[in-house]
Design brief:
7-stranded mixed β-sheet, Chloramphenicol Acetyltransferase, alpha+beta, Condensation_dom, Condensation domain-containing protein, 2 domains, 4-stranded mixed β-sheet, CAT-like_dom_sf
């Protein structure tokens, strides 16, 4: 089992806290790092501009991602962990970069020389209260305009140790968060055990990826096929992005913080039955997910057209699949339901729409928005937000068999929330659904209705015999 949620919900047991952060000398040298020509990815640029625009918020507006695990030993070798952490930071070049936005609005990347990277342990003493640990993680992990916006820590007790890795979202996507924990575990094991098998594949340069992405998207124009397809879909949706089908409540404050809920969808036997039904109709598990979402939305909002968004990885090589970075793009899943309420028929439509969306993987939606003229009739403001549904089959991840043993966790900070974000994760024994949404009374009620209806559609689909 993997725990998903907000950092506020993380409940580490008492223990002796040690944290690893950049040494003062390393942080000072990093500030002098020279500019590097690699641009931010489109995803990073949007994120940085939003973070700068909301810098005056009274809370951390940018995303903070926390990875946790439990290790069945009460004493870790601090010297070995220090070497492992520094090796990890040097293995993935995204962690050697920082950004600044100039007076002209241009974003400039700086690259810290390898010799200037030095994270060191700090003994913080015994901590009894989870609030103290959570507050420590928040306070010691800087935001996206500082180089060292990532920290590491352990909480030791006699029988076990809690390990955590905290990153600003600037440097990692969901797969990167998993990969970070796996990499660090292997690097540490290598330091303390000479017979550790070499499972670390060479990692691609994220800077090279960003450079290649920008070179490709620079060739696009409003007449490019991918751009035209995006615009066709947006215009077919009334000129705007999709929204959650139910009311999320009026905001009286400048910002609405996040709320979270995780529920179980299937045990593995039921998930396998659901998957068999999908495949019997020429679809995959993901096609069944969007069919269920479309049918739930029609029942709740009387809609005969489904338009959803889903994040997918843009990693395309073995080296990129070994690389930590923000390798993600957002894709459309749009299709008409017509009058049919048949799950099998809608599932075929959903699978086809998902596959059509995959054709737009290299057409960054951020780039599409850049290309729009100032007088465009489309409602796409710079701070746009839309709901999404993400699906990950964690059984395909190397080392997933240790998730239960290590009591792994993935958590996010209570950042600002405007839309409903859904993650469906298929684990070895259970498929779960996690939702992040605005923390308003109306949104709580609406998300409860939505999740209940979606669970019912899934249950009905999985309960029927294969055809």
């Amino acid at each position: 089992m993997v725990d998903f949620g907000l950092i506020d919900e993380w409940e580490p047991a008492p223990g002796r806290l040690t944290t690893w952060t950049a040494s003062p000398e390393s942080a000072a040298r990093a500030r002098l790092a020279p500019a590097h020509p690699a641009p931010p990815s489109h995803q990073q640029e949007q994120y940085l501009r939003l973070a700068r625009r909301h810098a005056a918020a009274e809370f951390r507006y940018s995303g903070l991602c926390l990875v946790t695990a439990e290790i069945p030993t009460g004493e870790l070798n601090r010297h070995a962990m220090t070497r492992a952490i520094n090796a990890f930071l040097l293995r993935h070049d995204t962690f050697r970069t920082w950004f600044q936005i100039g007076a002209d609005g241009a974003i400039e990347r700086h690259l810290v020389p390898e010799a200037d990277v030095e994270f060191v342990p700090v003994d913080c003493g015994w901590v009894d209260d989870p609030d103290t640990v959570r507050d420590h993680v928040h306070k010691t992990t800087p935001g996206p305009f500082d180089w060292d916006c990532f920290t590491f820590g352990i909480i030791e007790r006699e029988e076990s140790t809690t390990l955590y890795l905290a990153f600003d979202h600037l440097h990692t996507d969901g797969f990167g968060q998993y990969l970070s924990g796996f990499d660090l575990a292997l690097l540490y094991t290598r330091e303390v055990w000479d017979e550790t098998p070499d499972l670390l594949a060479p990692a691609a340069s994220y800077l090279d990826y960003c450079t290649a992405e920008r070179a490709y998207t620079a060739t696009m124009s409003l007449t490019s096929p991918g751009v035209q397809k995006w615009l066709e879909l947006i215009r077919g949706n009334g000129g705007s992005l999709p929204v959650f089908p139910l009311d999320l409540g009026k905001r009286t404050d400048p910002y609405t913080r996040s709320a979270h809920r995780t529920v179980s969808l299937f045990d593995e036997d039921t998930a396998a039955r659901f998957e068999r039904r999908c495949r019997a109709n020429g679809a995959e598990f993901v096609g069944g997910i969007f069919a269920a979402a479309a049918l739930a939305e029609r029942e709740l909002a009387d809609s005969d057209y489904y338009f959803g968004m889903t994040p997918v990885t843009t990693r395309s090589t073995a080296a990129e699949r070994a690389s930590v970075g923000w390798y993600v793009t957002l894709l459309p899943v749009a299709f008409p339901l017509g009058l049919s309420s048949s799950f099998d028929r809608v599932m075929k439509l959903a699978q086809h729409a998902y596959e059509n969306g995959l054709r737009l993987t290299t057409t960054s939606f951020q780039r599409v928005i850049e290309l729009l003229p100032a007088d465009s009739d489309l409602d796409l403001s710079p701070g746009w937000a839309c709901p999404m549904i993400s699906y990950v089959d964690t059984r395909e991840l190397l080392g997933n068999e240790f998730f239960d043993t290590a009591s792994c966790g993935l958590y996010a900070n209570r950042a600002a929330s405007e839309q409903v974000l859904i993650w469906i994760n298929r684990l070895a024994t259970e498929t779960t659904l996690s939702v992040i949404y605005p923390d308003t009374t109306v949104a709580h009620e609406s998300v409860e209705r939505y999740v209940t209806r979606l669970q019912a559609v899934f249950a009905a689909a999985a309960g029927q015999e294969d055809r």
